[in-house]
Amino acid sequence: MATAKSPKQTTKCSTLRAAVGQLTLIEHCLCPLDARASLRENFVHKTSYGYSKDKKRKQASVRVTCPGGLSTEDEFFLWGLLSLTLSQPKPTPNFFATRHYCLKQLGKIDTRRRGGRQYQQLAESLERLSLVSYRNDAFYDPLRGEHRRVSFGFLSYSLPIDGDSSRVWQISWDPIFFEYCLAACSVLAFDFEVYTELDPASRRLFLLLHKLFWRYRTTPAIDIRELGTNVLGFSDSLRTSEIKVRIAKLAERLRIHNIIAGEADFQKRAKGEFTVRFSKGKFFGRKVARPASNRIESPLAEPLRSIGFGDHECQRILHKFDEHLIQQWSDVTLAAVEHKGRSFFKRSPQAFFMHNVQHASQGTRTPPDWWLDLRKRESLANANLGSPESERPPNAKPSSVSNVLAEVIESGLVPALDKTAVK
What we know:
Layout lengths: L17 E5 L12 H4 L4 E11 L2 E11 L5 H15 L7 E4 L1 H7 L11 H15 L1 E9 L4 E7 L2 E4 L10 E5 L1 H8 L4 E5 H6 L2 H13 L9 E2 H8 L8 H17 L3 E11 L2 E8 L20 H7 L3 H10 L2 H18 L8 H13 L7 H15 L17 H11 L12
Antiparallel strand pairs: 1-9, 2-3, 3-5, 4-8, 5-6, 7-8, 10-12, 11-12
Helix pairs in contact: 2-4, 7-9, 10-12, 12-13
């Protein structure tokens, strides 16, 4: 039977305000700052960071394998999408939302900027993130209270073949990674609006200092070379003096936001060796809520509007029916609109949706076979997006979401639903 829900789920907010990062992952960068170094096929990023165990300092080794490359923009989407997932009333590893909803909540589009290039950026970031394999020989497991050897991915996804579809995208988080992120003691809540205003290097320093300022008013002395290369992602070929200058500039940007107080305190330890300390700014005098407290609109409201429901009707539907049923039957309805046409409906898409979701809530209706077949074809097409680049012809151009989908359909691996829909 349908279960009632709190109307708070439909409260609107222009963008996500509180976000989270995983505490161990912010100890080091996932890729270099320079996209020319990291945005290449079969890129492998090796780094390390120090941690304390039994009152001794030890070193953790990290290997991030990125078959499709990785960039700082992907890092932005990783934390942003994870935060949207955890913002839901009952977070699960499967997050359903339209691309427009995700980009709107992350502040990437608004009434002046509506999709296009941003849609493509999100799709390409998802593709790269879905291929990443993360390995760490001393990852802190908050559930077991110990450091462990781990290997996990970040996410997988399923999206409509039609690039102009208004149907929801499915993002499924790796179960081990999501388990760590779901644990309150394993994530760092931070102000997403401030994070968005910063440049990539400042964002990484902001998150690290956010973690350190939990315990300290002034951070312990940090080796600037280790900070610059392992945490911020500067090239290891830079001289120590160059890294020192860049860190000073980042500190000034954070000081403007009151994240740190005063200037960075550099101390010379030996010839060519420097440490730095940062002091906590007034920014941390206010409490930052976890994403679960975000008052953002349900991601299911947008597909309901695409079907033809008004805001009041959307709220009533979200309050009355189970989220899973709303997601499923809104997707069936929109798939019918896009692939079967308006003539498919005896009355209207709205009537079709209401009739089916009401019966489904009583356990007397299941999704149609044609929709299940469509989902299988889309899953096959999405799976082929991750095929190794080495299998492509020697002179082939780099893959993108749209041209790979077109190739999959042309090859006959997926029966063509509508070739004109692949832009």
